[in-house]
Design brief:
heterodimer; A: 115 residues; elongated; B: mainly alpha; 2 strands
């Protein structure tokens, strides 16, 4: 179980970092040196529940959408880890840790997906 | 500053924060938020959002070796993650309710606590008396010492759980891993061995941060153009730091880093109190 977890984390982080890096290089290319003003907060929400919107952006090679995809992959990594623990506790028939890891997974999914 | 200069300045600063964070065990998040806010004049909400993403990356990256070496306790981590994730969702909601000035002050106090805690001597207790609740929840384990494996058993489970909820709240509110508070819960309250506490804490940080990330994304706290260099920089720095840590012992670095953190903490409290955040 431990070995699979560590392998899973490594792959998740590496893939996410690579996607973010690609997006960032493209971003520097596309923005033509114009920097967003981060001193003033004008939050543009990431459409978490509209993965289609992000994929649509990627089809048009929109760098921000690529970075967002990388960030979503990164967030998914620990969530998949918890899901895997739930599965292994299920295999071990651990009556106590099935509901415990189930609760953690439910909180994570609720926070990510509810409106 | 143009975009390219800004991006590289943020990338280098983040790499340095990640390097020092890994070498001293305090994590990069506690430094990167005040540096972005005070030096780069980034809005606190963007700084917190970018930091949270870097925290997920470094936690998941660093957890790899610890889990494999058998120090992290997956069951204890999972049990306490119930507290930290609920706390983190609460903290992320709270972040929108209270002013950036108040967040700045809370951040400053957390920085001062982190600096202080890095100098606590971490002596493990020798005996772990039987504990009914820990037994019932299977909060026991063993870890490698020399060639043998030493067993341990959690104490004060409700107190540890409560402190973990606070750690989660701070993580969601400030976009940091709050490793110092997590270690306080496990090492201080639950009397777990120090090495088990720090590594399990690190393992939990990613899950805790992921719990508030959804709320941050929906609020627009995570600006891609800023989060990307922060994440890549902190990740690269902390990977390099973890490699170096095997070879060098750096008490002097710990002192320097603590001084930096105290200075940033005081400056955050001052900026928050005078309304410059």
């Amino acid at each position: 179980m431990e070995i699979t977890i560590s392998r899973m984390l490594r792959v998740g982080v590496s893939v996410a970092a690579l996607v973010v890096l690609l997006g960032e290089i493209l971003y520097l290319w596309q923005a033509h040196g114009v920097k967003s003003d981060y001193g003033y907060f004008h939050g543009v929400p990431t459409p978490v529940d509209h993965i289609g919107l992000i994929l649509e952006g990627i089809r048009h090679l929109d760098s921000r959408s690529i970075i967002r995809l990388g960030i979503l992959l990164l967030i998914a990594t620990p969530i998949v880890r918890v899901a895997f623990c739930l599965y292994s506790f299920g295999m071990q028939k651990d009556k106590l840790y099935i509901p415990i890891s189930g609760t953690v997974l439910a909180v994570l999914l609720y926070s990510l997906l509810h409106r | 500053m143009g975009l390219v200069e800004f991006t590289f300045a943020v990338l280098l600063t983040s790499a340095l924060a990640g390097l020092l964070g890994a070498l001293t065990g305090l994590g990069g998040g506690v430094v990167i938020v005040p540096v972005l806010a005070l030096l780069f004049h980034v809005d606190l909400r963007y700084a917190v959002g970018a930091s949270l993403i870097s925290v997920i990356a470094t936690s998941s990256g660093a957890a790899v070796s610890y889990v494999r070496e058998g120090f992290s306790n997956v069951r204890i981590g999972m049990f306490l993650e119930v507290a930290t994730t609920l706390g983190a969702v609460g903290g992320a909601y709270l972040a929108a309710r209270i002013s950036t000035r108040a967040i700045g002050i809370i951040f400053g106090v957390t920085l001062l606590y982190s600096a202080w805690s890095s100098f606590r001597n971490n002596k493990d207790v020798e005996t772990h008396p039987p504990n009914a609740l820990a037994e019932k929840l299977k909060l026991t384990g063993d870890y490698p010492v020399g060639g043998a494996r030493r067993t341990y058993r959690a104490q004060n489970v409700p107190a540890g759980f409560g402190i973990m909820a606070i750690a989660g709240l701070l993580s969601g509110l400030l976009g940091i891993g709050s490793g110092a508070v997590k270690v306080l819960a496990m090492d201080g309250a639950m009397k777990l061995p120090f090495k088990v506490s720090t590594t399990t804490s690190n393992f939990m940080i990613g899950v805790t941060a992921a719990a508030s990330a959804g709320v941050y994304l929906r609020r627009g706290y995570i600006a891609p153009g800023l989060a990307a260099p922060v994440m890549l920089g902190v990740l690269a720095g902390s990977v390099a730091g973890a490699r170096l840590l095997v070879r060098i012992r750096v008490p002097i670095l710990r002192v320097i880093f603590a001084v930096v953190i105290v200075a940033l903490g005081v400056e955050m409290i001052y900026s928050g109190a005078t309304g410059r955040l």
